[in-house]
């Protein structure tokens, strides 16, 4: 079993609790889902962004975070949660030690992410220069004004640009964390985490990096949810429509009709979206097109390219 990934939260003073706790809960629950008692998938660490021993949240809760950064590898993730802004500037001075740690982690191949005003910390390092990024709608204009090299994407839940991810803040940090779990372990695991946390499927936004599993779960059709549970777990298998319908004890025609009414897709179309998303996540991690295609249940890179082209035409 591979070693768990470290998710290091670089916690600022006056942090908003949900900016921190939401993503932390997602990764912790994913660890439970994947068997945290036998190695697990994620190991969480908390470090002060400002190098202090402990911080106090905006909500007044003291947090015991370490002043020094843990040892990190290219497999690991650093998340900078947001802080209370109110009517003030969202920009804050970033210590030389924090800037060096964030840049060094990205330079060695690691991923970095932010929630809400945490985007300003990433921008201060230069890691957002030339990249697409987002932040809370109240401070999008300030981010664009202070950092003109950043391509600010407005009014979306989150943006992933290579190994740098940013989210709009507050509860959208959960959406981003679910996407990252799906990229690491597939949509079936992310679906189990989402259901465990009882989070809404999709609330708003149209970011193309949003999880297909979340995008098409915004309905109340129990039959379709059960079909999606099967597809989420077995999307890489050659699962026939009649086999899926048999598992659910309905006819293929009934399943297709109800599935389309609830999601706008056929079961096959949903399965193909899951495969494309999984392949894209693996490509972000450096897999070849052929390897990513096969891991996602496709014969080779040619099938992946054909499905991607078909998907693009359907959304135009």
Global morphology = elongated
Task: Provide the low-confidence segments as ranges.
Answer: 201-210
Radius of gyration: 20 Å
Order of strands, main sheet, comes to 2-1-5-6-10-9
By CATH reckoning, the class of the largest domain would read Alpha Beta
Query: What is the typical, i.e. mean, pLDDT?
Result: 87
Q: Give the name of the CATH architecture of the largest domain.
A: 3-Layer(aba) Sandwich
**Count of DSSP H/I helices:** 13
Oligomer: single chain
Main beta sheet? 6 strands, mixed
Q: How many strand segments?
A: 10
**H-E string:** EHEEEEHEHEHEEEHHHHHHHHH
Distance between the termini: 42 Å
- What name is given to the CATH topology of the largest domain? Rossmann fold
- Portion of residues in beta strands equals 5-15%
Query: At the fourth CATH level, what is the homologous superfamily of the largest domain?
Result: Class I glutamine amidotransferase (GATase) domain
Helix fraction, binned, reads 40-55%
The tally of domains stands at 2
Helix/strand/pairing category? alpha/beta
Pfam families: DJ-1_PfpI, HTH_18
Keywords: Transcription, Transcription regulation
InterPro entries: Class_I_gatase-like, DJ-1/PfpI, Homeodomain-like_sf, HTH_AraC, INH-QAR
Domain HTH araC/xylS-type: 225-316
Feature tags:
alpha/beta, 316 residues, Arc Repressor Mutant, subunit A, Rossmann fold, six-stranded mixed β-sheet, 10 strands, elongated, 12% strand
């Amino acid at each position: 079993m591979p070693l768990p990934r470290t998710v290091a939260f670089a916690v600022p003073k006056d942090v908003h609790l949900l900016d921190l706790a939401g993503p932390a809960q997602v990764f912790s629950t994913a660890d439970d889902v994947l068997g945290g008692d036998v190695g697990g998938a994620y190991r969480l660490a908390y470090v002060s962004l400002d190098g202090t021993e402990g911080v106090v949240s905006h909500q007044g809760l003291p947090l015991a975070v370490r002043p020094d950064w843990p040892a990190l590898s290219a497999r690991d993730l650093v998340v900078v949660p947001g802080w209370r802004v109110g009517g003030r500037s969202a920009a804050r001075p970033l210590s030389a030690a924090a800037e060096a740690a964030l840049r060094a982690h990205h330079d060695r191949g690691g991923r970095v992410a932010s929630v809400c005003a945490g985007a300003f910390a990433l921008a201060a390092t230069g890691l957002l220069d030339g990249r697409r990024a987002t932040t809370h709608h109240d401070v999008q204009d300030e981010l664009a004004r202070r950092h003109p090299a950043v391509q600010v994407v407005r009014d979306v839940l989150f943006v992933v640009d290579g190994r740098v991810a940013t989210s709009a803040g507050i509860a959208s940090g959960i959406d981003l964390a679910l996407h990252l779990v799906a990229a690491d372990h597939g949509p079936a695991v992310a679906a189990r985490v989402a259901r465990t946390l009882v989070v809404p499927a999709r609330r708003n936004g149209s970011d193309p990096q949003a999880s297909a599993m979340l995008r098409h779960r915004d309905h109340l059709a129990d039959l379709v949810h059960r079909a999606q549970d099967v597809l989420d777990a077995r999307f890489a298998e050659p699962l026939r429509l009649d086999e899926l319908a048999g598992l659910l004890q309905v006819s293929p025609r009934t399943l297709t009709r109800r599935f389309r009414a609830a999601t706008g897709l056929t079961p096959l179309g949903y399965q193909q979206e899951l495969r494309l998303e999984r392949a894209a996540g693996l490509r972000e991690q450096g897999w070849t097109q052929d390897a990513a295609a096969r891991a996602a249940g496709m014969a080779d890179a040619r099938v992946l390219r054909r499905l991607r082209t078909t998907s693009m035409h359907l959304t135009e």
